[in-house]
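Collaboration report, partner site 2.

Our partner group contributed sequences for two proteins of shared interest, and the home lab folded both. The records are reproduced in the order in which they were received, starting with the first partner submission.
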Amino acid sequence: MKHLIGILALLGLVSCHKDNRWMILSEGLQNDTLFVERCNFEEYIMARGDNSAYQQQVDTLLFVDGRVEITWPNDEVQLVTLQSPDYRDCSHGRPFYHPAGRIGLLVQPGEAIEVRLKPHKYGHLTAKITGSELNAEIAKLDNQVRSVQVDMYATGFALNEALATKSTAVDSLRNRVMNIRSALHSVYAEYVKAHPEQEVSAYCFFQMGPQRGERYYRQIEPKVFKGVFRPVKEAAERYFEEQSQRAEMKAQIEEGAQAPDFALKDPKGKSVTLSSHRGKWVVLDFWGTWCSWCIKGMPHMKKVYEQYADRMEIIGVACGDKIETWRTAVDKMQLPWVNVIDPKEAAIQESVAARYAVEGYPTKVVITPEGTIHKIFKGESKEFYEELKTLFE
């Protein structure tokens, strides 16, 4: 670890970049290891959840006598996350770092920051930050949020177990999760309402996201988004524009309306159009390899397809998938119908899922032989299969 820190310090000396210098102090952490993840903040925002769309640097640091120092050259705003193994949990089937132990900062070039990490008696990690006014205020807010996250995830795990065992506590636990989410949201919302002129309000909006935070976005003064949070504003405006376009598309998708034609690639790269299946009933199955309910429904879909294949075609439209992941899944599950992929990078006007106003997965659209929309079914519903039985039997 000493070699790593020395190399980073040397790079800082020979570079023309502005160094970031950190002093991190442990005040009661049981583990002497700290994981530091950092990435370009603008790239992170524009990636919209796609981890492959930005580069992330991960450093493993060791506390010596409760402290560690690190220096690295930097010429960009970085999103930096500190995580302690004290908050690593493997009891639920896979390694999981509890958000109550995750410290996030937005670091600008040349900043020298001191971070004091201290476990709280209620189960969350608190941070006290000096050297950056923005991060000092962010830490105060996030300390409140992390205290709520302890209850949030404990209740969430209890809900998952209740669902698995079909417990009578499901409804009460689900309501509790919703109430806790509202409490998390309110920490940031209340700050925005009280401080619309402060830069931290942009951070609050970033944490809420454009869907939850739109009403508060309109309250924040524009000057707040001119610095560090410029990418947040750009991403938000793009989101709002896309939502407007989605609303226009949704107004055209209804029973009896003409089904929009499209051309998408199958696993071999061959173009498939909806119009080429005119004269036969068609089911558009919008799904994804990441969607557990979509996968659970495939065996039943296969039985139905085998039963009605002479009168019906299914076109599975994979959404939100990487091409290789999708190809592998189609082959592994041996899906017998037509399979195509709606590209992740497609503009909103070109996305088939957007043109069909898909808001959840799976969504199944039944199209008549004449090319009009017959019925739309959201989720893995028995009504869909009952409708097919009515049509074909």
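Second partner submission, folded after the first:
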Amino acid sequence: MLDIKIKITIAAVVFSCGWIHSPSGCCPGKSADAAETPQVELAEDQASVEGRSIAGYVELGLAANPAISEAHFKVVAARHRIPQQQSLPDPMVNTKTFLSPVQTAAGEQRFALGVSQKFTNSKRRRTKAAIASAEVSAAMAEFQRVQLEITEKIRIACYQLLFVQKAAEITAEDIETLSQISQIIQRQYEVKQSVTQQDVLNVETEISRVKNQLTVLRQKEKSYRGRLARLLHLPPQTDLQITDSLTAVPVEHSLQELTDKAIQFRPELAGQLANISRDRHKICLANLQRKPDFTVGLNWISTSSSGLSPVANGEDAVLLGIGFNLPVYRRRITAAVGEAKAATLASSSRYESLEDQVGEEVFDLIARAESSQATLEMMQQDIIPNAARTLELSIEEYVNGDIKYVQLIDNWRALLRYRLAEAQMIADYNQIAASLERSVGGIVP
């Protein structure tokens, strides 16, 4: 009798992955900020790259993915804007050479040298620096968002690869099962003559069809490996192997708990709060246009000792000048304040909209996870065991001549379909868990 073994293992997998900052390259001429994290050597031992757990591939992707490096350097660039906003403008130096000397009582004046410095309002400079600091916070939130997104994509790619590998394994096992069924049919045809030759040919055709499905799965496996390699910034032909098995990751948190976590840790919300802070500082900056800026200048004029006057003494002239702008165009300043206030209200509305989107997304993912978990439990506890038992009985009944070939093959197809559906459900469930982790802005214990 055909021995059908169905091995179903459900294990809880807990992912632990903190905020891993993307390493960046360091070469002569780059700033100290850019050199804080050394670049990861991609040409590492091939075995360590090709054989890793899902968490290991996530770690590798966070270190090597170019999108994370891009977000990291945007943070570095934003930080360099703060000292620029705090600084005074460069002093101005100007010279004048008189093509026709200026005749004065003290003597002829042929050359003048001046130095001036504009002193912008100190509170305005501090406000601009605060705006730049808020932009740094927004860039940091974007950096964290990209990290979560890449983490989600890597895990989804890993689960897709594990599914297609499991599907290929199940299909290969069912080819063996079908081959044994074919032997039974062949024996029935040769010994008892209780079946027609058409049954023999049909089962051989069925074997060829399943082998073709196995070939398609092998091709998909290569495609998913290429997708994972791209996320890891590796050559697409890298033979990546995942040491983890395809098992379900239980999510045992309430909707309210995960929603609160998402509101607290979701990078998009943190970034939008930074944008609100930036826009509020812009209101203050617009109001500060009512205060003038001062320019202090010192001029020196060279004077010769000879001149038209007999009492020319040749003493040089030194002048001190102070100037300031007059903020008299009030309509422009009022319009700037109104623009900044409207932008702040728009940012606040955007934050509320993001809150609603986050709540809806978490609710939808939890609902999908619960539905998938319930269906998976039914598949594992009822449907597959019953289908396996049905196939066993069908083989016995076929040998005894109680059922036809069509019923036997239908029962075999049903078991194969259910086993593949189980693997797909586990992969989908884990992908939902990966998306839920990204949605709440961190790790789901």
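Feedback sent to the partner group on the second submission included the following. The radius of gyration is 37 Å. The chain is about 65% helix and 10% strand.
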